[in-house]
Amino acid sequence: MAAYLFRRIAQIVPTLLFASILIFGLQQLLPGDPAMVLAGEERDPAVIAHLRETMHLDRPFPVRYLYWLGGVVHGDLGESLRMQQPVRKLIADKLPVTLELASIAIVIALVIGIPAGIVSAVRRGTGWDYAANLFALWGLSTPNFWLGIMLILLFSVTLGWLPASGYVSPHEDLRANLAAMIMPAFVLGNAIAAVLMRHTRSAMLQVLSSDYVRTARAKGVRERDVVLKHALRNALIPVITLGALEFGTLLSGAVLTEQVFTIPGFGKLIVDAVFNRDYAVVQGVVLFTATAYIVLNLVADVLYAVANPRLRTR
Amino acid sequence: MKSSWRRALASLGLALALAAGAHAQTTLRIGLAEDPDVLDPTLARSFVGRIVFSALCDKLFDIDEKLAIVPQLAQSYQWAPDNKALTIRLRPGVTFHDGEKLDAAAVKYSLERHKTMPGSNRRGELAPLASVDVVDPMTVRLNLSAPFSPLLAQLADRAGMIVSPKAAQAEGDKFGAHPVCAGPYKFVERIAQDRIVLERYANYWNKDAVHIDRIVYLPIPDSTVRLANLRSGQLDFIERVAPSDVAQLKGDARFKLTKITEIGYQGITINVGKSERATQNPLGRDPRVREAFELALDRDGIVQVVMDGEADVGNQWVAPTNPFYAKNVPIPKRNVERAKALLKEAGVANPSFTLMTPTTADAQRIAQVVQAMAREAGFDVKIQSTEFATSLDQADKGQFDAYVLAWSGRADPDGNIFSFDACKQPLNYAGYCKPDVDELLKRSRTTLDTNERRTLYADLAAVVLKDRPIVYLYHRHWLWAYTNKLDGLRPIPDGLVRVTGVRFK
After folding, report:
1. Which of A189, A191, B174, B243 has the most crowded CB, counting CB atoms within 10 A?
2. HEC secondary structure over A137-154
3. B309 touches chain A (CB under 8 A)
4. d(CA A220, CA B362)
5. Which residue segment(s) compose the domain that B471 sits in?
6. What confidence tens digit (pLDDT) does each residue in B289-298 have?
7. How far lies B351's CA from each of A94, B292, B375, B500, in Å?
8. Do A32 and B390 touch (CB under 8 A)?
9. ipTM of the complex
């Protein structure tokens, strides 16, 4: 097992190195001179020259890459030239915000999607089924930014129940934090709820027509227990896998919603950085995300190996 | 028994009096259209940052509603007879937010910091400033290499902001993270991309004019969401209201709307000499084609379609209401027949060129309207939408025929023309270069007499507006919307929100 673990970790190093070259290289392909964007309206040549020097833009590509890599190896992701803050701090500040948003969104998606899927499978062909399908179609086809603005107009402007945008830290005021999070989380969760509903429905329909469900019914088990205890448990396995996948997508997919609701999260951080050509932030954030994916993959592989000893010898 | 009752009543009365006397904490929440960049006056480079600075950092001078220069940290000033030195007497009793005294040494330090700090954006603005002398503890003398008429206007912006030398020395290039100045409000905290919080400075020199305890600036880029925040009561003030939202705000008695004509402009820059491309295209090559292009445009129509009427039409680097507007070159009326005749004369009945435009909604609409209008005169305009950073890069390399570009403007007219039309200047994307224009531009800088400067700008207008390196279209309105409980806002043409004097009714 130890040898397997060692082998797998050793494999990560070249992967990460390759990812870092890709991230750094692609960034250089972006048209536009970052020094010119950062120099502001006046575009003083002396300022541009200073910025180019600070960002090592006056050096050849491989040298720039090594400068950056040298910092990364020592845990220094560089500094945002626009915000004058270390990239590491920006990530540490923004990631929890997006994690919270994604978590609430996924809870909303599960709470809406799974019951709706069950109902439409059990009451197949009835008004309930059609209503649930209509909801799914609506959820899938409504653009996030439109739904966001409509919710703001209804709940903030007309009714005045919720803040229109912004973010309050939960440590500061939990109530205000939840009030600020509920609309964006619903917008994000709504689309996923629709996907989960469709999957729950088809999984339930499949399971409900299987032999063991018929046996359970033949034994005289109550319909409610057949559905919730026998059928649902099996039907949920693919749905949970899907939910986990959607959660991953949410972390990177909250960009638009964060823009509409002005939530200072991970998505907003990277979008603003790209438009401002804040290279250090773009590189740092993408590298962090790539590393997170690679490490999570490793964890999954190791867990498989723990469960299945045959994998370890491969 | 009786005395204890009396005592109880007395303490109740005292408590009530205290409660009435202790005024509730007031907070002004301002919605900004962008997230400001670094809050260091020397390094700062964005328009939106200047809005925050106007509460945080006082300047030697300020401008008023009519663009006149008024003293702020300065008390009085005097030019030397040869106009090569400016002596400034400082306002007494001013302290920085860290309690340090604002004196001549501090002013000298700040101005030298602007001049010498690596990456300083102020160096160019203060280029003719050769040295600063401390005459006495409250008087400084600014020695210039040549007379420089825009100096006072520069000192009424970021170049005139004085920072605490003690804090600036301690923080170095990280000063922007905890700026210490001498404005009415001091820095409390900043959460990147989320908020900037300022708090009233108790020892401000003009503290009687400061009525609000805290200011929170919240960057909200989407104008619809910014307005929704105002309407739902989460914000008290928003800047840059979208022109399309003006009608709905006017019908709502809870809010007030202020319009200010900007000191900047919206225009179309034409490549007349930046690169080879200028000679390959009739628009860049032949002034008659450019004249035809301008005559094909109906500025009123453009303002209606693009800005919902929320702009003043214009044909110069300053608005028609500006004291330096050259009356000898009025706004030309649309004349399609004359445009066609000019094109015929130039030998190109159907000139074709590419109009590069950033991807902002305004710029896109300008391009579309211009395309349609110019077509009627025979032009074939191809629109090339390009992301802003890329478009700047292409403009700088001369890879364009025409480019939709705006300028936020400076108080002195020099700031709106010198960098754009003098040979080899950084913002001269047009590649325009004429020795006689350079000479006039230099003279307008070295002449301090306003009437003489007006004549020089009229001479400049006669040449430059005929050559058309930039076709000026209009001057936007700064649109502010705020709760009707707010009072005392001053509409200054630079579009910056001055919080001194502002109060809740």
Report:
1. A189
2. HHHHHCCHHHHHHHHHHH
3. no
4. 70
5. 265-476
6. 999 999 999 9
7. 51, 10, 10, 54
8. yes
9. 0.82
